[in-house]
Design a protein that fits this description.
By secondary structure, this protein is of the alpha+beta class. The protein has two domains: about 180 residues, Jann2411-like fold; about 35 residues, no CATH class. About 45% of the residues lie in helices and about 10% in strands. The protein contains seven helices and six strands; from the N terminus they run ββαααααββαββα. Strands 2-1-4-3 form a four-stranded mixed sheet. The chain has a two-stranded antiparallel ribbon with strand order 5-6. A hairpin with a 2-residue loop joins strand 3 and strand 4. The N and C termini lie far apart (about 60 Å).
Length: about 250
């Protein structure tokens, strides 16, 4: 089904090749919010050792193809173009990381009830302006659709739908249900679509279960500490470990 041209849907913008239009549907845990998927590409963000999957332009191309942002021919063309222009490809990777981190900070702020920083909005707008300039409308017997211009292969074309997705989410009512995972070592963003707005974890099977296990461990630890504190200290005479009239220290809680 062709989307009406009035609303840009980043995960439904078509790729045009040789006069044809191929509809691309992004996939993943939050396919309708591509920008959050991109922000979440950095795993264990809040630890001292985050896992970075985008260490090269080739990684960026692979991520984009896996998320439906590039067709296979476009992927091959971008890899060839990057091989011819390695410095330009490296610059695009740096812009991609900057965009990703700006998106994370913006929606982390939104989730906490704060306004995004102007510098992060400026980073988004810089990519967004190029993305909007690369869009046009295709006409067909069944209607009209947004499509990316296919005159050239821009090395940063995979960033355009990401920027559109972020702009769409920021300006939509869905902005109010953006949440950040409550796990202290995670930092993933998600949309809380529960009826009572009670979702706390990006994934209950991962962060939620880890938090439950951690709480169980802490309860057992506190119980052991309390039990040790309630026991009378063993007697000790002069020359023993503890001097007369003093008790041993409580066991460490660490």
């Amino acid at each position: 089904m062709v989307k009406k041209a009035g609303t840009i849907q980043p995960d439904r913008v078509q790729h045009t090749e040789a006069g044809t239009a191929q509809s691309v549907v992004c996939f993943g845990p939050m396919r309708h919010q591509l920008c959050l998927d991109f922000a979440n590409s950095l795993d264990h963000r809040l630890t001292g050792h985050p896992i970075e999957p985008l260490t090269s332009y080739a990684d960026l191309v692979s991520w984009s193809q896996q998320h439906g942002l590039l067709t296979e021919p476009q992927e091959a063309q971008l890899r060839q173009a990057a091989a011819r222009h390695p410095d330009a490809a490296a610059a695009v990777l740096a812009r991609a990381i900057a965009l990703r981190e700006a998106i994370y900070r913006m929606f982390s702020a939104v989730a906490a009830g704060r306004l995004p920083e102007p510098a992060d909005l400026a980073t988004l707008n810089a990519v967004l302006s190029k993305a909007l300039g690369a869009l046009h409308i295709l006409g067909a017997a069944s209607g009209f659709a947004w499509a990316w211009k296919a005159e050239d292969i821009a090395l940063d074309r995979m960033l355009w739908p990401v920027a559109l997705s972020a702009a769409q989410l920021l300006t939509s009512d869905a902005r109010s249900i953006v949440r950040e995972c409550a796990a202290t070592d995670c930092g993933w963003l998600f949309l809380d679509t529960t009826r009572n707005g009670s979702r706390r974890w990006c994934d209950m099977r991962v962060c939620g279960n880890r938090a439950k296990a951690r709480r169980h461990y802490e309860r057992r630890k506190r119980a052991a500490w309390s039990g040790a504190a309630d026991r009378p200290p063993p007697s000790s005479g002069p020359g023993k470990d503890s001097p007369p009239g003093r008790t041993r220290r409580r066991p460490s809680a660490s």
